[in-house]
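Tokens as discussed.
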């Protein structure tokens, strides 16, 4: 689905993978679930591109619902996978998920998410055999030249990616606009966050940053400003 003329989202908003086009080349931000592989050529074609135009996959963090087809595109197409150095071991499956348990939930949204996971192969996501890493503040030499902003809390290596030329901030799970466990809509700390207070404190790193499109790992795009999203997250009760 189109977010802007140069950004498309793969999937229905439950767990998001985004395509960012720049001068005919594509950076993929997050790799959703394995089942998104089927939709990838269709979304690429909608922006006039093919798998051959994909230069890299950049991951906002190492959770399994963000690395879905990463190993497949790496192995089959030789596309390099990038992630912050503090989440590399998580993406490679060398350390357990740092999140402690499920947190609050409602049964209907949770069941819906589980069924979505079964349909999209998210219960058996392959780990990534090999990743390249980046650090906080880096500007990546990939299509769209995103700048990395480390936002630890959801996971230690959670990072936002600011594509200034696209007026877009990919926030991963530092902010969700849909909670898969409760069904709550609107900017909030995502479920499965390892350290909620660290996650809230990290949002201060985004002070003064503006982007017309705030694009979360779960839920719809937010277009009412980064500052307003952060204000709403801080006003939300756990
Ligand atoms: Zn996550
Ligand atoms: Zn997630």
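Sequence:
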């Amino acid at each position: 689905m189109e977010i802007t003329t140069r950004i498309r989202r793969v999937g229905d908003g439950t767990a998001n993978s985004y395509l960012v086009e720049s001068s005919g080349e594509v950076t993929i931000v997050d790799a959703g679930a394995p089942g998104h592989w089927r939709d990838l050529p269709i979304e690429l074609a909608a922006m006039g591109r093919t798998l051959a135009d994909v230069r890299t996959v950049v991951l906002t963090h190492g959770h399994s619902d963000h690395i879905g087809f990463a190993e497949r595109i790496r192995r089959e197409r030789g596309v390099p996978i990038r992630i912050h150095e503090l989440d590399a071991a998580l993406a490679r499956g060398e350390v357990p998920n740092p999140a402690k348990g499920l947190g609050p939930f409602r049964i209907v949204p949770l069941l819906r998410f589980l069924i979505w996971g079964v349909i999209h192969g998210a219960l058996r996501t392959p780990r990534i055999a090999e990743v390249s890493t980046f650090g906080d503040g880096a500007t990546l030499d990939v299509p769209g030249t995103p700048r990395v902003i480390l936002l630890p809390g959801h996971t230690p290596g959670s990072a936002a990616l600011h594509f200034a030329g696209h007026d877009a901030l990919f926030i991963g799970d530092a902010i969700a606009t849909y909670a898969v466990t409760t069904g709550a809509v609107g900017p909030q700390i995502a479920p499965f966050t390892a350290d909620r207070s660290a996650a809230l404190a990290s949002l201060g790193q985004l002070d003064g940053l503006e982007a017309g499109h705030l694009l979360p790992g779960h839920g719809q795009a937010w277009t009412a400003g980064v500052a307003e999203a952060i204000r709403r997250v801080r006003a939300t009760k756990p």
